[in-house]
Amino acid sequence: MQLAEVELDRITGDIFAAILGLTLDGHRASDTFPPDERVVTGVVQITGDFEGAVSVQLGEHLALRAAQLMFALEADELTDEEVTDTVGELANMTGGNIKSALAGSSALSLPSVTAGRDYRVSLPGTVIKDRIGLDCDGDLVVVALMQRDVTL
Amino acid sequence: MQAIVIDDSRATRAILTRILEDLDYEVVQAGDGRKALEVLETTPEVELALVDWNMPVMNGLEFVRRARADERYEALTIVMVMTEGDVEHMVAALDAGADEYAMKPFTAQVIREKLELLAVGS
C-alpha cells in the first residue's frame, strides 16, 4: 500500500478550498487541541485492500464557520445537527479522496461524528500512519490516517 | 426546469441546491436512493438528478440502476457526485446508467460545466 503517496495536507486543502472557500496554511507546530476546547470529530472507515480509518477534527469555532458556509446560514441559525452533518461530510470527502489515492480496491463507510472536550480518538486494532495539524485562519484542523495493525 | 439532489449530507444538498437554483432549477431533495424514488413518483417532471454514491438505505449506484430500469425515467439525466475517484467506481457508475460524474470536492464551476456538457435544460 503506497501510504507515502497520500498527501493528507493537499487533499484536505483542496476540499476546504473547493467546498468552503477557506485556505489551509500549512502545518502547525502542534496537532493537539487545548483540553478546554470543544472539538468535533468526523470518522470514516475504509475496508478492503486497505483496512483503516480517516478522522477529521475541527474545533467548535471552525466547525461552526464551516457549517455557516455550507448551509449559507448565520451561526445563531444553525442547529447542532447541521454542524455535525458538516463535519461528517468533510470527513466523508477527505476519506473518499484518501481512499482513491491508495492502491487497490476499498470501500468507504458512512461517516460518524462525535463532539466533546479533552478526548482522544482511538480505533482498536489500528495504528496511526499519518497525522497532521493544519492552520485555517488561526483555527486548527487535524487529519489522521489510521491503518489496521496486521501484527496484532 | 426541475432537479433532484440526492445526498445523505444535508450540507452537500444545501450547496448543490444553491448551485442549481442559480441555474434557474426548481430543486427537490432526498437523503437516500429509496426516498429519491418516492419523490420521483410524485414529481415525474424532474429532468436532472445529482446523486451521491455513499448513502444509507439505498446507495447512489442502486438508485441509478433502478431509475434506468424504469422507462418513466428514460429522459432523466443522472450525474453522480461522489468522493470515490477511482476508475473502478467511475466505470461502475457509467455502466449502471449515469450520464456523467463529478468528484467531491466540487466547485460550482465544475457542476455548471458538467451540465453544459450534457446540454441539460437547453
| Total E-strand runs of chain B | 5
- In percent, how much strand structure appears in the residues of chain B? 15-25%
Which CATH class of chain A is shown? Alpha Beta
Tell me the series of helices and strands of chain B, N- to C-terminal. EHEHEHEHEH
CATH third-level topology of chain A: Chemotaxis protein chec
Count of the domains of chain A? 1
The largest inter-chain interface, given as chain pair and residues per side, is:
A-B, 25 and 21 residues
CATH superfamily of chain B: Response regulator
Approximately how much helix is present in the residues of chain A? 25-40%
Count of discrete domains of chain B: 1
Give the name of the CATH architecture of chain A: 3-Layer(aba) Sandwich
Apparent shape of chain A: globular
CATH class of chain B: Alpha Beta
* Total of helices of chain B: 5
Quaternary state reads heterodimer
Give the CA-CA distance, first to last residue of chain A: 18 Å
Structural commentary:
The complex is a heterodimer of chains A (152) and B (122). By secondary structure, chain A is α+β, with helices and mostly antiparallel strands. Chain A has a single domain (8-148), classed as Chemotaxis protein chec (3-Layer(aba) Sandwich). Chain A is 31% helix and 32% strand. Chain A has helices at 8-20, 60-71, 80-101; strands at residues 38-48, 52-59, 106-108, 112-117, 126-136, 139-148. In chain A, strands 1, 2, 3, 4, 5 and 6 form a 6-stranded antiparallel β-sheet that branches. Chain A is globular and about 45 Å long. In chain A, 45% of the residues are buried. The mean pLDDT of chain A is 92. Chain B has 122 residues and is an alpha/beta fold. Chain B has one domain: Rossmann fold. Chain B is built from 5 helices and 5 strands, in the order E-H-E-H-E-H-E-H-E-H. Chain B has helices at 10-22, 33-42, 60-68, 87-96, 108-118; strands at residues 2-6, 26-30, 48-51, 77-82, 100-103. Chain B has a 5-stranded parallel β-sheet, sandwiched between helices. In chain B, helix 1 links the parallel strand 1 (2-6) and strand 2 (26-30). Classes of the chains: A alpha+beta (152), B alpha/beta (122). At the A-B interface, helix 1, helix 2 and helix 3 of A face helix 1 of B.
